[in-house]
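Moderator note: this is an archived Q&A kept for reference. The question asked for a predicted structure of one protein chain; the sequence and the answer are reproduced below.
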Amino acid sequence: MRLNMSCKIHAETVERQMERNWPEGIKKTKQRLDIYHILADAVKPLTATEIYEELSKKEGGNSYAFSTVYRCLQTFEDAGILTKSTAVTSENAMYELRLAQHRHYAICLKCKERFPLRTCFLGDLNKMLPANMDDFEITGHQLEIYGYCAKCK
């Protein structure tokens, strides 16, 4: 049994989290399940390359094709169960599961390390919209802060 500690009150198994978040109509293939588990275990967003390398470790070098990783990530993104951020360029796209509590990051422009912010300070986004957008339905948001970490300054 694998636990996900993102819940502050009690740990939730990855399987239970997956059950709750898996979108209808998306098949649970071995490749998708393996990638989901890697993302669920991650403490920070991962690139497709990092996910591919983790799969290679778990499969003893007999990993999936890199294109399979991208297709699975695209399926997850289309289904809304992960967040993709392009941190400076699209070649550095990072992926993380979209859970109940979202995160924002400060990103070092030199080493590309991502540092999670303690809180979301955007507040009620509906109040920030212009008056002529009262019927706009906000489904999410993303915020990234760029600069240099202490190691790279």
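Archived answer notes: Strands lie at 3-4, 12-13, 46-47, 82-85, 94-97, 105-108, 114-116, 144-147.
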